[in-house]
Amino acid sequence: MSNTNLNTQSVLSMKGEGYYSQKTIGAKNAIDKMELLIDQALKTIPKNDILKIADFGSADGGTSQQMWFNIIEKIKNSGDNRQIEILYTDLASNDFSVLFRMMQGMHGNSDFAYQKKFENVFVHGCGTGFHDQLMSDNSLSLGFSATAMHYVSERPCLIQNHVHMVGSNEDEKAQFKKQALKDWETILINRSKELVSGGRFICINFGIDEEGRHLGNTGGHNMFNNFAKHWKNLEKDGVITNEEFINATFTQHYRTIEEFRKPFDDPNSPVSKSGLILKSCKTMFTDCPFKVHYNNNKSSMTSREYAETLIPTMRSWSETVFKTALEKRKPEEINKIVDQFYNSYLEEVANKPDGHAMDYIHVVMDIEKV
Ligand SMILES: C[S@@+](CC[C@H](N)C(=O)[O-])C[C@H]1O[C@@H](n2cnc3c(N)ncnc32)[C@H](O)[C@@H]1O
């Protein structure tokens, strides 16, 4: 039996023990670009007694830590001495212990452990998914989320001949689109309940831009096609079964701008009626930092060294999907097969690196509760 309709919890945690933020500099670069927008939003959000902030789908907190440090430093320097509560949310399967250690300055770069540097800043964690309401009504001043809401709450179907909806057939794609729209409305309605009047929800989500580009598909090789190809090769070589090939279906949907806008464009939608408005919505390209580094250092760096930096960043967020597809096997066997899978992709990049990269495409939205 194929494991259809698996909910998100079991299949998508980031690799733990701090691996996620160590290998995901690109995600950090994208978040850092949001500082200005957040800074501007904070100037107009009503000044309630407590400034409550939430970072939805924060993983180990490492990628957003410097941005929050900078924001909090600016708030404090401006003479705003309100107490600040910052809630990190993720799935219960997330490695929260790294997150809490990071915030205490016991892991990662302790220079940005703002909880230790500034007074009256309180860090909390929440292990309930963002499709639910996570805070009391009218309590949240500023919600933020980066690179997390492309995860759908469940897989509406398994993809037969690919691993991701971007390469699925029309019928499969339509099922993912429907699920993603339902989830997006649920996410927004719950943020609307949490937000204070005048509060903001700023999010950057993976999506498909005006040119049809998306993560790992910005002109050169298509990363998801490569995942599918190397996974299929394991099936062809008899290493995995067809059922295991199919089970590796990412619980993700990359929405287009139109899909993100839909609940806002209809004045009678439950989202519009709840008081949410979309102040701005645009796409954002962020270069793959490993590609940039390689291009700048080609004289001293081999293509293999490039591959050895690129593949781990892909692995940091995708590994769980392939491991879960093999869940009926023994752990040693699973690790061996998954190593073989990423190594074959690594060899391809090492042999011919041109066009291989993981550039990021985000849709940036600034949402206000009026
Ligand atoms: C790619 S990571 C992004 C982490 C961080 N925000 C960043 O931008 O670097 C996606 C995160 O979203 C989390 N996530 C996925 N579905 C979620 C849900 N329903 N509720 C909360 N977190 C979720 C995952 O566990 C993971 O930590």
CATH class: Alpha Beta
Overall structural domain count: 1
Helix content: 40-55%
Protein structure class: alpha/beta
Distance between the termini: 48 Å
Mean pLDDT level: 94
**Over the alpha carbons, how many angstroms does the gyration radius reach?**
21 Å
Tally of separate helices: 15
Largest sheet: 8 strands, mixed
- Uncertain segments: 1-12
According to DSSP, the number of beta strands is 8
Tell me, briefly, the overall form: globular
Assign the CATH architecture.
3-Layer(aba) Sandwich
Bound small-molecule species: S-adenosylmethionine
Give helix and strand order, one letter per element, not per position.
Answer: HHHHEHEHHEEHEHHEHHEHHHE
Q: What percent strand? A: 15-25%
Superfamily at the CATH H level? Vaccinia Virus protein VP39
